[in-house]
Write a structure and sequence with these properties.
Blueprint lengths: L1 H7 L3 H11 L4 H10 L7 E11 L4 E7 L8 E3 L10 H20 L15 E6 L40 H30 L3 H7 L1 E10 L5 E10 L14 H14 L2 E3 L11 E3 L6 E4 L11 H11 L17 H6 L4 H13 L22 E3 L7 H20 L13 E11 L3 H34 L1
Antiparallel strand pairs: 1-2, 1-3, 1-11, 4-6, 4-9, 5-6, 5-10, 7-8
Length: 466
C-alpha cells in the first residue's frame, strides 16, 4: 500500500480513504456534489429537504431530501474568502471582486453602472504605513542596507535589520488603527476637493461625488497598506458626469493633501512599553497613478487594476508567515512554528491588549492587529458583492426550473410556486479522500475557466484586427 501511495503522490491514509470513497455506491453523486461546490475544501454539510408546492391545488411539484444522498447530507460551498482556507471559494470571491472593481471602471449597465463611467477622472492610489525600523529589502538594483543583494524569494525580506530596536508596538498599533486612518482620509479628501475647487463643502457635494473601491494588502514587513480606485462622479453618482472643475489633476492633488493631513492619536502606556503618546500617520510612500482606458495601450489599464485588486482580496496576514486563525497565547506561537518577525508582532499584540482593551489586540493578533474589512467600497462606486451573488443564485434557480419543467415566474407571474424547506447543520469539512477529489475538481474548473478566458481574448483581438 505504501509503494502504491507514493507512486500516486498520496500518503497511505489519503489513498486508503480515496479507495473507500471510489468504491462506495454513491460515488458518482458525491463527485457531482463536489463539482457543484466548485471543489470547496471545507464544504458545509446539510441534512433536510425541500418541497415545491402549487398553492392552488396543493400538488407537490417536486420534492427533494438528503436521505438518498451520500452520507445522508448535501454539501454546499463554505464561501470563505481566504485562499489559505479554501482556494475554490476564494477563487469565486476574487472573481466577484474583479467584476465589482471593473464595473466601477468600465461600466456595467446590467449591474446598474453606466458605460459613461469610463469618461470620469479616476486614479489608482496606494497608501502605505510609515517606517517602524529598517528592514531587509530589494531597492531596485542596489544592495540592501545589510550589504546583500537579496533574491526575490529571500525569506529575510521584510524582516528587521535589528529586531531589538524595531518598533513592534508602533507597527501593530498602526495596523490596528489603519481603518480609522482610511476613514479620516476619505473625510479630508472631500474637504481638499472643495478647497481646490474654490467651493464650500456643501457646494462641492451638490456638484460632485468622490467614489472609491479599495482592498487591504500586507507588505512583507507585516504592515497593512491600501490599494484604492478613486473616481470623480457627478452629484447623482456614476449616472451623472462630474463638473468641469473635477479634473484628474485636482483629484490627484487632493489625495496627496488629504493623506498628509490624517492623524490618529494613541495615548501612552508606559507600563506596556509605549512611553509616549503616538501620532499615527500615513507613510511617505504615497503612489497615485491615472487609470487609462482599457485597450488603448496605457500602462495602467482598467483590467490590470481590477485584476490586481481582486488578487489581494483573498489574502490576509498569513502571507507574512502568521496563521489564519486566532491564537490564545505566546506558547502556541512556538508550537505553530511562526517565524521570528511575525511572532514578535503577534506577541506585541498580546502584550498591548491590557493597555488598550477596547482595541481587542489579542483577538486580532493573528492579523497583526488589523481588524478592518479587507475589501470595501463607497455606496455608489458600482454594484455589490451581494448583487453579484444573487445573479449567480438566480441563474442556478433558472437552470433548476428548466430541468424540472417549472414555469419562469418572470414570464408567468400567475404561476406561483410555494417552497417549503427544512435544513439542519450536519457538520463541515471532508475526509482525506474527498479532499483529494475536491482539489482535483477545483484545478480542473480553474484550468477550464482560464482556457476559456484565453480563447475569448484571442477572439477579441481577431475581431479588433478585422
Amino acid at each position: 500500500m505504501t509503494d502504491t501511495a507514493t507512486a500516486a503522490g498520496l500518503d497511505p491514509a489519503t489513498l486508503s480513504d480515496l479507495l473507500r470513497v471510489a468504491g462506495s455506491p454513491g460515488f458518482d453523486r458525491l463527485t457531482e456534489q463536489i463539482r457543484r461546490t466548485g471543489g470547496c475544501a471545507a464544504p458545509i454539510r446539510l441534512s433536510g429537504g425541500t418541497k415545491l408546492i402549487d398553492p392552488a391545488t396543493k400538488t407537490v411539484l417536486h420534492a427533494y431530501t438528503t436521505d438518498n444522498e451520500p452520507g445522508g447530507v448535501l454539501r454546499v460551498a463554505c464561501g470563505n474568502r481566504r485562499a489559505s482556507r479554501c482556494p475554490a471559494c476564494a477563487w469565486t470571491y476574487a472573481g466577484d471582486t474583479y467584476h465589482l472593481i471593473r464595473a466601477g471602471l468600465v461600466g456595467a449597465p446590467d449591474k446598474g453602472t453606466p458605460d459613461t463611467i469610463r469618461d470620469h477622472p479616476r486614479v489608482f492610489a496606494t497608501l502605505t504605513a510609515p517606517s517602524f525600523g529598517p528592514v531587509h529589502n530589494r531597492p531596485g538594483n542596489r544592495r540592501c542596507r545589510c550589504g546583500t543583494r537579496h533574491p526575490e524569494d529571500a525569506p529575510e525580506l521584510g524582516t528587521p535589520l535589528d529586531p531589538e530596536t524595531y518598533d513592534y508596538a508602533g507597527a501593530v498599533l498602526w495596523n490596528n488603527h489603519a481603518s480609522e486612518l482610511w476613514r479620516y482620509f476619505t473625510i479630508y479628501l472631500r474637504r481638499e476637493v472643495a478647497r481646490r475647487a474654490g467651493l464650500t463643502q456643501k457646494a462641492a457635494r451638490e456638484q460632485s461625488r468622490v467614489s472609491f473601491g479599495k482592498v487591504a494588502e500586507y507588505q512583507k514587513r507585516g504592515a497593512v497598506h491600501f490599494h484604492a480606485v478613486i473616481r470623480f462622479d457627478g452629484p447623482e453618482g456614476p449616472d451623472t458626469p462630474p463638473p468641469a472643475w473635477a479634473t484628474l489633476d485636482l483629484l490627484t492633488d487632493a489625495i496627496r493633501a488629504a493623506a498628509a493631513r490624517v492623524e490618529v492619536s494613541v495615548p501612552a502606556a508606559p507600563e506596556h512599553g509605549v512611553d509616549q503618546d503616538l501620532v499615527l500617520r500615513w507613510g511617505d510612500q504615497l503612489d497615485v497613478q491615472p487609470i487609462g482606458a482599457f485597450g488603448q495601450g496605457e500602462e495602467l489599464t482598467e483590467q490590470a487594476v481590477a485584476a490586481y485588486v481582486a488578487k489581494y482580496a483573498t489574502k490576509a496576514a498569513e502571507t507574512t508567515g502568521t496563521v489564519d486563525h486566532p491564537v490564545g497565547n505566546k506558547e502556541a506561537l512556538v508550537l505553530l512554528g511562526v517565524p521570528d518577525h511575525p511572532r514578535r508582532l503577534m506577541e506585541a499584540c498580546m502584550d498591548l491588549d491590557a493597555a488598550y482593551p477596547d482595541r481587542r489586540l489579542r483577538a486580532w493578533a493573528h492579523m497583526l492587529g488589523f481588524r478592518g474589512h479587507f475589501s470595501t467600497k463607497s455606496r455608489r462606486y458600482s454594484t455589490t458583492l451581494g448583487a453579484l451573488r444573487q445573479v449567480r443564485a438566480d441563474y442556478r434557480a433558472a437552470q433548476q426550473r428548466t430541468a424540472l419543467g417549472l414555469p419562469d415566474p418572470d414570464e408567468h407571474p400567475e404561476a406561483t410556486v410555494l417552497t417549503v424547506a427544512h435544513w439542519a447543520y450536519a457538520g463541515h469539512g471532508s475526509t482525506p479522500g474527498e479532499s483529494w477529489l475536491a482539489a482535483n475538481v477545483r484545478r480542473d474548473i480553474q484550468h477550464n475557466r482560464e482556457h476559456a478566458r484565453e480563447i475569448r481574448a484571442e477572439l477579441d483581438l481577431e475581431g479588433a484586427a478585422a
